[in-house]
Amino acid sequence: MAINFNQVLDVHADALKLRAERTKVLASNLANVNTPGYQARDIDFAATLRRAGEDDAMDLPLDTQGADLAYRVPNHPSEDGNTVELGVEQAAFSQNASDFQMSLTFVQMKLKGLAQAITGQ
Fold first, then answer.
1. Which residues of 43-53 are buried (b: 16+ CB within 10 A; e: fewer)?
2. CB 69 within 8 A of CB 25
3. 59 pLDDT more than 60
4. φ, ψ (nearest 5 deg) of residue 79
5. What is the DSSP letter of 66?
6. Cβ-Cβ contacts under 8 Å for 6 (sequence gap 6 or more)
7. Nearest to 16 by CA among 29, 6, 2, 3
8. For the whole prediction, is pTM greater than 0.85?
9. Do 77 and 109 touch, CB atoms closer than 8 A?
């Protein structure tokens, strides 16, 4: 009998993929903090993950170049049209990194439990 890792890992594998993509988007925002006219973007994590669960697809339907990205509305717009706010982006990046680590821990626990079940421990 073959093991279906998509069923074993459940939503955590999709969450890891999505967190990795969000890290790229947030890093891009931070890299362009001084770029005139740059528009900060972010991924609606909950909506994208929910949509991935509803699709029951094997791959996470995420297009970082398109519709899954939303523009961030700045609290204090700058004169040059850049909407990146350093503190907001740093906080979002830090929270995303923490959430990534939590999802990774869940995956590790699932795999450890599976390994124990296989070895009969």
1. bebeebbeebe
2. yes
3. no
4. -70, -25
5. T
6. 13, 58
7. 6
8. no
9. no
